[in-house]
Amino acid sequence: MKSIPLILPLVALPLSGYAEKPQTPNVIFIYADDIGYGDLSCNGAKTISTPHVERLAAEGVRFTNAHSAAATSTPARYAMLTGEYAWRRQGTGIADGDAGMIIRPERYTLADMFHEAGYVTGAIGKWHLGLGDKKGTQDWNKQLSPNLSDIGFDYSYIMAATGDRVPCVFVENGLVANLDPNDPIYVSYQKNFPGEPTGKNNPELLTMHPSHGHNQSIVNGISRIGFMKGGKSALWKDDQIAEELTSKALAFIEQHKDQPFFLYFATQDAHVPRVPNERFAGKSGMGPRGDVLLQFDWSVGEVMATLKRLGLDKNTIVILSSDNGPVVDDGYKDGAVELLGDHKPGGPFRGGKYSSYEAGTRVPCILRWSGRVEPSVSDALVCQLDWIASLASLLGVKMPTGAAPDSENYLDAWLGKDRQGRPCLVEQNAQNNLSIITNEWKYIEPGKGAAFNHNVGIETGNSPEPQLYNMRNDWGEKENVAEKYPEVVKNLAAKLAEIKDGRVALPLE
């Protein structure tokens, strides 16, 4: 058993109706990347059609008030997989491609929990949580250690970091896939390798140009963050990433159809650089960003068709969500801003990726469990942070003391039976400024940083003044009512301070 540090968990609400024999359904997380609440037609988007996601929503619970734990990738994924708010740990910010493993082997994870329940576990797709022991010390030509097998995953086929960062390779069970030993990989986030072209110095070699940053090593005609050389046979082809990852996901399902399995399927679609497969290129009328939303929908359809073909669709919980809110221009000139038209990636919400405002963490979310969960729409306040504790309850797993310290058991909410969910939730923006939300209020604490990120065109929510919004009648966070309700501000600020301290949470007044 892993050694778990003793941390007092927050008090969870009692769960009713699940004292019977634990269930053993298969579980699949389809975890989107940078897809906003308003990017899917099931949430009201009129300019894009995502029929496979629509069908999933029609057959399950569609959540209108579901959140990731942070407005950027790495901390959101860390929190989801460990059940701990990322802001409690240093080194959980947006990871470079040569980051060491951020989730250390001694940490109890979602995959560990499924292991204890007798499941085979797999992770396929974007990782962005580091590999190897320490930043910048990896030998990408050998077995990387630690890797995902050290935190509970039996099988992994992942992007080393994310699409816009080197190394642009897939890593299978800790080894770079398809690597020619006669053409080794070298990676640096400090300086370029002699003679290697970059987007900054060799723009004539680019097929897609950066709008800000992203001007270092060139792979497939696209300049990235970081420097690399070699490994030509291992490089992914950007227009085939979705097909490659989806095929690996389907193969995992097929291989383990006769035993309980947990699959973390983390797609790349909507994250930059956006290079849709030729089947989707030009189909949305919104440029590459719209096209990859269609591509994501296709991947969802392939997963669901495979489950049905194998007779697994009724005994598989499928949860679809996104790591954070949307961003239109995140570093490349791909026409996304010019072709956006009337489409609102964040739906009715303010802000976007990186932001304290709602579009930063309020994300699309659907849970389907055919025959066990009634199709519905739920306004319950829920967070991905609670998947580990809630599913542990379903599977009858007693987690070690101190594991998943911020995760709470809201299984009834996830199954559509409790329409209230959490009493409160802490959200984190890109500058690590925090806010706290309840079903009625949202308080954004005073924080440092610019109020507007001009590179991406998104309001950050940073302000030296406290902000308070009424979430019952002002979803768009248009009116700051902090001066009108000083007692609410005081109460929520105290609650946030209490949660920061790690003490047991008390009911809100």
Strand segment tally: 22
Biggest sheet, strands in spatial order? Answer: 7-6-5-4-12-1-13-14-2-15
User: Unreliable stretches, pLDDT < 50, 5 or more residues?
Assistant: 1-19, 504-509
Query: What's the helix-strand series?
Result: EHEEHHEEEEEEEEHEHEEEEHHEEEEEEH
Tertiary shape: globular
State the helicity in percent bands: 10-25%
Biggest sheet, open or closed, and with what strands and sense?
A: 10 strands, mixed
| Gap between N and C termini | 39 Å
User: What percent of residues are in strands?
Assistant: 15-25%
> What's the overall average pLDDT, rounded?
94
Total count of helical runs of at least 4 residues: 8
| Helix-strand makeup class | alpha/beta
Radius of gyration: 22 Å
Question: Explain this structure to me?
Answer:
With 509 residues, the protein is α/β, with parallel strands linked by helices. The protein is 18% helix and 16% strand. It has eight helices and 22 strands. The protein has helices at 51-58, 73-82, 110-116, 241-255, 287-309, 387-395, 411-414, 486-501; strands spanning 26-32, 61-63, 66-67, 120-126, 155-159, 170-172, 175-176, 186-188, 218-219, 222-223, 227-229, 261-266, 316-322, 365-368, 376-378, 382-383, 425-428, 434-437, 441-444, 452-453, 458-459, 467-470. The strands form six sheets. A ten-stranded mixed β-sheet has the order 7-6-5-4-12-1-13-14-2-15, with helices on both faces. A hairpin with a 2-residue loop joins strand 6 and strand 7 (175-176). The chain is globular, with a radius of gyration of 22 Å. It starts with 25 loop residues before the first strand and ends in an 8-residue tail after the last helix.
